[in-house]
Amino acid sequence: MTTQAAHLAADHTETRAQALEVLRALVGRPDADFHDGQYEAIEALVDGGRRALVVQRTGWGKSAVYFVASLLLRARGAGPTLIVSPLLALMRDQVAAAERAGVRAMAINSANATDWGLVSEALAADEVDVLLVSPERLTNPSFRENQLPALVQRTGLLVVDEAHCISDWGHDFRPDYRRIADLIARLPASVPVLATTATANSRVVADIEEQLGTGVFTIRGPLARESLRLGVLRLADSRDRLGWLLTHLAELPGSGIIYTLTVSAAEDTARLLAEAGHVVKAYTGRTDTMDREALEEALKNNQVKALVATSALGMGFDKPDLGFVVHLGAPSSPVAYYQQVGRAGRGSANADVLLLPGTEDAEIWRYFATASMPDQEKAMAVLTALGESPRPMSTPALEARVDLRRTPLELLLKVLAVDGAVRRVSGGWESTGQPWSYDEERYRRIAQARIDEQQSMVEYERMSGCRMEYLAAALDDETASPCGRCDNCAGRWFASDVRSSAAEAAGESLKHAGLPLEPRAMWPTGMDRLGVPVKGKLKAGELVAGGRILARLTDLGWGNSLRAMFAAGAPDAPIDPAMARAVVDVLREWGAAGWEGAGRPVAVVAMPSRNKPVLLQSFAQAISEIGRLPLLGELSLEFGGPTGQRGGNSAYRLAGVWDRFAVGPELAAALAACPPGPVLLLDDLVDSRWSITVAGRALRLAGAEQVLPLVLAQAG
Ligand SMILES: [Zn+2]
């Protein structure tokens, strides 16, 4: 430490003056001053060398704390700051803001992995003040072994952004974040650490503090946001909720976000609103990165009235004057809801926040909750497969050994990697040989916590007290008090009527159905292991043509009826005539689009069904009668029919249906007597599409000229 630096460090008034100067450069306003707690956090880091946790609402200015602290520490001779931050979008904004204030920032994430040479040179020349790293990068073995140790030795400050992700109890726990606890443990004790989050209840705070070490300096600000006007409007169904949006969207202030729970709901809603002349766009996990950036810009510049988004429009998005947030369906916890509505009204005096709950919300929450929990049996199967393999196994190779889809399989591998039982190496994954046990108690507690959160969200919808106070209290904010602005404090501030023409338009749009069914063209890898002698592409003579699906189970329109029809324990009943008419409309449009170039179908064939024979037969009969096409019959089930469950991975699904469908003698004869042309192959529900592919292949091999699949519902 130089004499000058020692002098500065000793003089707190001097620190404050310097900090203020840096802050003013950072925000570009000569009169800017610190908010409550900002300077205290900087002082704890810079003069105290402490570990600090800042829990403050979004927009409070957490990034000002770490950039100001970084520059002051650098002036005192410290090494660069290491910021671990989860979203590339967030990094982009942070880097731009920092550079304007003279901070030399660089980012390393999975997208620019090859630039390490450049980063490394800049670090060696001491030309980097702040290095941003994605949590995923920390799990990269080569980064951890070759680059991280040197970085840790030189780091002047470690910042963990969105630190609630560290905690099991955080609503958004990510396995990658468990690496951060290791990282903190490896830091010299004198290196200050700053963890920041906008959303943490007491349990999460305690958990983060424990991981930060001893003597943690915690600042918790009030979470209530005075600019927000909260409200809940309970409407009968999707038709009314969409009708409400059609009626009132234009009256909402400025531009904003309409959140939905599923991708299909976002797409359906955006389509309906756009058809009615509203300037809106869908933004979901299916939107590609380039388009996402353009859409975010369009919203920031008020070029759209709203983005209709899933939670994919997340942490990194910042528009201080966002005018409104409307939810079509509630998120599964008050924390998640608070985080999404907290995007509004940061830099403006007023923003409207309205929740339109849906009757199907709870069902959707349950679906996502079970999808994200590791499963003991599957974990053991992964460990056994890796333990038996002499070589590392790729993810597709593991899919032929463990019945899990790609995303849950990757999540499970991450959990096992963080627990030290497996590691990623070149060529895939290998076992470390370390024993692993399933922490049943821990997962049971987490599952119970999720159920409690869902219950508090239901309570939020039904309560008569202050909604902001309730949300703040749910986050253990002790300063929570009635807001005087929400619908329960000040009376209903939004119109509740639905224009009848709007409801009709919504109803029409919801009835509209028909999605393409992409046929399978490639066999999964590793099928020989599962006793199925296929690989590579399907042969031309075995392929089915593209098809049509009435709707997804998650669609706003037909989704409700379809989910009820396929719910566990639902009776097997003939097809609802309205649904049959909707299928006929789908067929008409399909015909107008040219039947995939295969020509008009000449006959109907049904899939065999063990669970819904009445439904399928009535469906086939209806289509045969209305379309005046002969019903040739149905395929027969071989070897007891398909095995395994829906929802497994592709390889297992194929193995479960392979050689289970056959063209019996009667069907073969009917097919032979039929005029040449394609046949419609009818099924009730598709998931992996292997049943329809294998059955269609059997029909092709039995002489069908072409097969056009027509299905009522798609799962997932
Ligand atoms: Zn209130």
SSE blueprint and pairings:
Layout: H1 3-10, H2 12-27, H3 38-46, E1 51-55, H4 62-75, E2 81-84, H5 88-100, E3 105-108, H6 116-124, E4 130-133, H7 135-138, H8 141-154, E5 157-160, H9 178-186, E6 193-197, H10 202-212, E7 217-220, E8 228-232, H11 238-248, E9 256-260, H12 263-275, E10 280-283, H13 289-300, E11 306-309, E12 324-328, H14 334-341, E13 351-356, H15 361-371, H16 376-388, H17 395-399, H18 406-418, E14 422-425, E15 428-431, H19 440-462, H20 467-474, H21 487-490, H22 500-511, E16 515-517, E17 547-552, H23 559-566, H24 577-592, E18 603-606, H25 613-627, E19 631-634, E20 636-637, H26 650-657, E21 661-662, H27 665-673, E22 679-686, H28 690-701, E23 707-714
Parallel strand pairs: 1-6, 1-7, 2-4, 2-5, 3-4, 5-6, 8-13, 9-11, 9-12, 10-11, 12-13, 17-23, 18-19, 18-22, 22-23
Antiparallel strand pairs: 14-15, 16-17, 20-21
Bound molecules: zinc ion.
